[in-house]
């Protein structure tokens, strides 16, 4: 349980302050544990990033796990609405995974964590849309919203919903 709590606190710290600016000393403070405890679970800054990404991934998938809509257009529109809330409340600085990818472009473990997250999003979109053939197009819409959110906000959501309706017509 301690490891998961630390990962959650690291996720918040990286989301709010970015990856480059956070020193290990600052991450220790943000995690709320001693340096020894932090290093016991996450022996490097990169492992802290991966722990935060994995925590975020699980939280995001759980957040999107809404089976109240049957598969199809309504389900994807609901997912886009959920994405708008997520971006507003949890990711005002954009996608944490892509920010990590940008901050650690040559780190295989960080890149693998980002890749796994994105692949599972494609699978979720295939399932929720009942259109596996359009999963990648829906993924690109989702990623476009995540990328555009910091500058375009709700305009990105409106455009994404319009594209989803046209695509799944």
Automatic annotation (TrEMBL):
Residues 23-42 bind DNA. It comes from the Bacteria. The keyword Transcription regulation applies. InterPro entries: Homeodomain-like_sf (IPR009057), HTH_TetR (IPR001647), Tet_transcr_reg_TetR-rel_C_sf (IPR036271). Residues 1-60 form the HTH tetR-type domain. Keywords: DNA-binding, Transcription, Transcription regulation. PROSITE patterns: HTH_TETR_2. Pfam families: TetR_N. This is TetR/AcrR family transcriptional regulator. The lineage of its organism: Bacteria, Pseudomonadati, Pseudomonadota, Gammaproteobacteria, Vibrionales.
